[in-house]
Amino acid sequence: MKKQIFLSLIAACSLSVAAQDFDTNPTIKIDNKDEDLHFTVGARMMMDAAWYHTDYTPMKSGAKLTDARIRTSMTFQDWYFYADFDFSGGKFTQKNIFLQYSLAPDKYDGISSFKAGYFNDPLGLSRNTSMGSYHFISRAAPAVALCPGRELGLAYRYYNNPFYSNIGVFAENPYNNQISGFQGVAVGGRWLYRPINDGTTAFHIGAAFHYGHLNSGETVDNVKKTVLILGTPMETAVDPTEFVQAILPYANNVYNI
User: Fold this and answer.
1) How far apart are CA 253 and CA 256, in angstroms?
2) pLDDT class for 192, splitting at 50, 70, 90?
3) Containing H/E element for 111?
4) 158: closest CA among 193, 129, 126, 130?
5) Alpha-carbon separation of residue 61 from 54, 108, 239 (angstroms)
6) Confidence of residue 237 (pLDDT cuts 50, 70, 90)
7) 70 cis-preceded (ω within 30 degrees of 0)
8) How far is residue 105's CA from residue 112's CA, in Å, rounded to a whole number?
9) pTM for this entry
10) How many C-beta atoms lie closer than 10 Å to residue 3's C-beta?
């Protein structure tokens, strides 16, 4: 029998009908030019609905409040603070919270900055793209499964016209609430070189690397059992069930290149 899946989705209801980057608009801005102090407050809301007509998949149809956030940012001279909080799913969730310090441009017009707090690992570009800037229903499945998300750490970024570099050191568990043992550590980075970038023609070469050491886990018969879980849902924001999943017990080191 011929089996078909009909996907009907997706109305995203937001604060604006037009697609936009919600990390910048809409916002309320307060400026104190005498002190070089700038403060912003913004909000966004997204709702998704899906209907799946099929006879062989357990995917759930329905509607969901997928995003409901309040975000704030403050700039004071060379310092920048950013925080946003999510209220979707019927619970309060911490998102990005970090403090950043930027240095003056060097002789190559390069900009350097240090960032500390809870933010996305620099490995995956897709993970560093705001939900308000999606060009499709969700992130690609490989990025969800393999790229780390938000972590607690310290990062250094440098960029000029031909070169970009972003590297950081992160803790395995941002809340230190593991069952036993001390936290592992992760190092991730992304580098980009653009030998041609004149405004009309561009050519670039890039690389990304991430190393993670898993150290926290459950102690079983005096042996620490670490677990690495890799998984991804289908391309839908309504049903977050991970239909593709791999559970790797006793994994210690993770390399993403």
Assistant:
1) 10
2) very high
3) strand 111-120
4) 193
5) 11, 54, 8
6) confident
7) no
8) 7
9) 0.80
10) 8
